[in-house]
Amino acid sequence: MEHRLSKRVHGKLGLLVYKRGMPVATGQIRDASKRGLFIATDYTDVQLNQTVELEFRFPDKQEKQFRRLKAHVVRKSDNGLGVDFEGVENDGFTISSLMQWLKKHHMPMAYFPVRRKAY
């Protein structure tokens, strides 16, 4: 049985993953909480506890500004990355806005589509 400290919100929103200030991968948020996210991606060149930046924007809003959050990688799987916001400085308003947007939108957004490796 899984134990979570905060409620998860399911949704889909494309994003870019940055390492050391450089974009390194695309992904899609699949679920989120006030404490972290699960990102569907095929990117694997990241270590546990490594800090990454995540860039996204809300496609239906009038503002076209991109938002960034910092997070620590806490889980890696074949399907993506689990990241945690604890221990890094973030704007709480951005996290709250992301949670509210995901609650309202359940359709996939294709701004940064996840690429799968061909086998």
From TrEMBL:
Any one Pfam family match given in the protein's UniProt record, by short name: PilZ
InterPro entries attached to this UniProt entry: PilZ_domain (IPR009875)
GO MF annotation list: cyclic-di-GMP binding
Domain (PilZ): residue spans on this chain: 23-91
Residues spanning the signal sequence: none
Protein name: PilZ domain
Organism: Marinobacter subterrani
Lineage summary: Bacteria, Pseudomonadati, Pseudomonadota, Gammaproteobacteria, Pseudomonadales
